[in-house]
Design a protein that fits this description.
The structure is a single chain. With 151 residues, the chain is of the alpha+beta class. 25% of the residues lie in helices and 43% in strands. The chain contains three helices and eight strands, in the order H-E-E-H-E-H-E-E-E-E-E. Strands 7-6-5-4-8 form a five-stranded antiparallel β-sheet. A three-stranded mixed β-sheet has the order 1-2-3. Helix 1 (3-17) crosses helix 2 (48-64). The model has no long low-confidence stretch (mean pLDDT 93).
Length: 151
Amino acid sequence: MTKAKEIESLLEPVAIKEGYELVDVQYAKENGDWVARIFIDKDGGVTMSDCEKMSMLFGAVLDETIILKDSYVLEISSPGLNRVLKKEESFKRFIGSKIRLQTVEPINNQKNFLGNLLDCKDGKIKIDDVSNGIFEINFLDIKKANVETEF
């Protein structure tokens, strides 16, 4: 299990208890420092006050465990407009939205998809790709996915 997954497993129950969705966790070395970057969301969006509150809670939980042995910088933020989609619940929430996704392996010689998310059920999503029409893609085949915001 990666360090980011360990952090996610530890903090997700805390987020849920406080009424937040834990959208994504990243853990990487940046400019010589370890950074734990945690993205949260809730109905109505996330405020700076929400980030401060969850930073205190998450920091306390992380400091009580031995998951992160090195010193680290903890960053809490909203997922932003082009939020990452990882969990089935997130995909369901954004049915009807334009998404961009990349698959692990090509599907009909295509790895990159952009189009409207039509459905999400039974471990699969259905997307109407702007270039090649409708595809049904298993969650396990998705490398990464984001909501695509249009301006």
